[in-house]
Design goal:
CATH superfamily of the largest domain: Alpha/Beta hydrolase fold, catalytic domain
Structural class: alpha/beta
Helix content: 40-55%
Strand order of the largest sheet: 1-2-4-3-5-6-10-12-13
Domain AB hydrolase-1: 85-302
Family: Belongs to the peptidase S33 family.
Signal peptide: 1-24
CATH architecture of the largest domain: 3-Layer(aba) Sandwich
GO molecular function: hydrolase activity
Radius of gyration: 25 Å
Number of helices: 18
Keywords: Hydrolase, Signal
Shape: globular
Length: 489
């Protein structure tokens, strides 16, 4: 008998080690909860046939048996052969529960094939909303041109924070993108899905990237539109966008100069931009009267920023009409507030949208720290104005994050594999194009579609570029990414 065989027969059998029991899922009760679907009580959702539900999640994921909150979702079920569930986020950060009918409409081939789910992130909309009773719908405000304006911007940002801390205290520490990503995963599990598809724009691209890093392998078809560089996510959100806004405004000035007979703002780019700078300078000396509003150098750059996100003619017209009215006010007229200017000033200077601005700040300031030293902002604003005379004081301005309680967690390092389709516009004024390039590098296996235009979120804004919309629709329908990156003119 051969030695090898004999030895094998004489060695006593060793019993296999018992498999270690799988660790108990601390979130099992949340993952397996039964959802109760009801009417949404929102006309656009109810008319489309959507249904809504509340998903219970822990307030603090480190203490899953402690206090809970409700996350509001909507669902518009698929028609025809179903491709899965797609979660939607439209950016902001802002509510997204109302988005499924819109996404179905702008993606006419692929949209109806998914169960489309809108989710209000915690702190916003119907999901444990934060409303600090702000006198404004936003914390985004320029530091202005003068020392007096800068001091007022510091007081404004500090007061906004104090209102939130006084009203909500430690609750604010649980509002962050990482916790919103955890909420997303509970929603995924509660819907009975091993994987979900995802459709996010602007801030929604950051949320999607964070989710992909925290929960690898749980995203299916993923579209990210106008992308945030995760390494540049900060409480000074507009700091990198000054040059893009100055350039987009120059392109708008070219367009407006050709219509001087209508708007009377100047016959050349330089003339139109000179008019804009003169209006801001005039408002820094004493506020302009526009309807019931007093408009100064802290608000005019924000109005321009709000109205500059799209280079199509209707949007350029709205901006030209707004600047024409501001120019009349700068020459002593008390002009009525109308159109896009009225909407923008109402958002900036009244408490109508306090909940939006409060929740947005809670998420952004809950994610990333900002410098605490006031002198840092004063120095940066001076430098910003020298480099970018219209938007420098906006991009470098102090924000509530300078006074906000410190974030509980560090920012997520996004370096992961996510075969996904990214869309970015070269002239994007809100999430600048370098953000799309950076996220493309961070997400291994992704493809980038570049649009040469001054527009924010060209896919979700339904910009009408068939090259972009065709690429998105084809990917969502087939699950196949383009063979290479592409540029759309």
């Amino acid at each position: 008998m051969a030695l090898g065989a004999s030895a094998a027969m004489l060695v006593p059998a060793v019993p296999a080690a018992a498999a270690a029991p799988a660790p108990a899922d601390p979130l099992a009760a949340f993952h397996h909860q039964k959802l109760r679907w009801t009417s949404c009580h929102m006309k656009e959702l109810d008319d489309a046939g959507a249904r809504c539900a509340d998903v219970t999640v822990p307030l603090d994921y480190a203490k899953p048996h402690g206090r809970t909150i409700k996350i509001a979702i909507s669902r518009l079920t698929a028609k025809g052969p179903r491709l899965g569930t797609m979660l939607i986020n439209g950016g902001g950060p802002g509510p997204a529960i109302d988005m499924p009918p819109y996404i179905r409409d702008i993606t006419p081939k692929a949209g109806p094939r998914f169960d489309l789910v809108g989710m209000d992130p915690r702190g916003l909309g119907r999901s444990a909303p934060v409303d600090c009773g702000w006198p404004s719908g936003t914390w985004i405000r320029s530091a202005g041109l003068t020392g007096r304006s800068f001091d007022a911007s510091v007081t404004f940002a500090r007061t906004l924070t104090q209102r939130c801390v006084t009203k909500y205290g430690s609750f604010l520490s649980h509002i962050s993108t990482r916790n919103i990503a955890r909420d997303m995963d509970v929603v995924r599990a509660a819907l009975g899905e091993k994987k979900i598809s995802y459709n996010g724009a602007s801030y929604g691209t950051y949320l999607g990237a964070v989710y992909a890093a925290m929960f690898p392998g749980r995203l299916d078809r993923t579209v990210l539109d106008s992308n945030v560089d995760p390494d540049r996510w900060t409480g000074r959100l507009l700091q990198d966008g000054e040059q893009a806004n100055e350039l987009a405004l120059a392109h708008w000035a070219d367009w407006t100069s050709r219509r001087d007979a209508t708007y009377h703002l100047g016959r050349t780019r330089a003339d139109v931009l000179g008019t804009v700078r003169a209006v801001i300078a005039r408002s820094s000396r004493s506020p302009l009267l526009v309807g019931p509003y007093k408009v100064d150098d802290s608000t005019i750059p924000t109005v321009l920023f709000n109205l500059l996100a799209d280079d199509r003619d209707p949007h350029r017209t709205a901006l030209a009409e707004a600047v024409a009215d501001l120019n009349r006010a700068a020459h002593g007229e008390h002009v009525p507030a109308k159109g896009a200017l009225d909407e923008s000033l109402k958002f900036l200077l009244t408490a109508t949208d306090s909940a939006y601005g409060s929740g947005q700040a809670a998420i952004i300031c809950g994610d990333a720290p900002a410098p605490r030293d006031i002198a840092t902002y004063r120095r940066d604003v001076r430098r910003g104005i020298a480099r970018h005379p219209i938007f420098g004081a906006l991009g470098e301005a102090i924000t509530p994050c300078a006074f906000w309680p410190s974030p509980r967690e560090s920012l997520t390092k996004v370096r992961t594999t996510l075969p996904s389709l990214l869309v970015g516009a070269t002239g994007d004024t809100r999430t600048i194009y370098t953000g799309s390039q950076a996220l493309h590098r961070d997400l291994k296996g992704s493809r980038l579609i570049t649009l040469k235009a001054d527009v924010h979120a060209p896919y979700q804004a339904s910009y009408g570029n068939t090259c972009v919309s065709g690429a998105v629709d084809s990917y969502l329908l087939t699950g196949r990414l383009p063979a290479a990156d592409a540029t759309c003119s």
